[in-house]
Structure to design on (99 residues):
């Protein structure tokens, strides 16, 4: 069944689709950039929320070493995740801008 689909997909071109009134969407770098801004923005917001929650846990740990360690590690991991997300956003925006 998959080979039949691949055969039909290889035969049908964009011009054929336009002739039979099938809507064709062109992907532009602006569309990709907008989608990636939403994705990386959401990732960054989640990381910031996790840092805030870990900070609250850090302040309310009352000197318990286990709670302090867990809160510190959570803050570190969320900060690393935020840095990776910002780096990925910068790289992807640069690459998409060059297309």
């Amino acid at each position: 069944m998959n080979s039949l689909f691949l055969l039909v997909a290889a035969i049908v071109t964009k011009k054929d689709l336009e002739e039979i009134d099938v809507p064709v969407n062109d992907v532009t770098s602006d569309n990709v950039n907008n989608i990636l801004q939403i994705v990386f923005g959401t990732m960054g917001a989640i990381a910031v929320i996790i840092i805030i929650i870990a900070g609250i846990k850090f302040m309310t740990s009352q000197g318990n070493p286990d709670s302090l360690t867990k809160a510190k590690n959570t803050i570190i991991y969320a900060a690393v995740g935020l840095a990776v997300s910002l780096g990925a956003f910068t790289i992807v925006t640069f690459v998409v801008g060059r297309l």
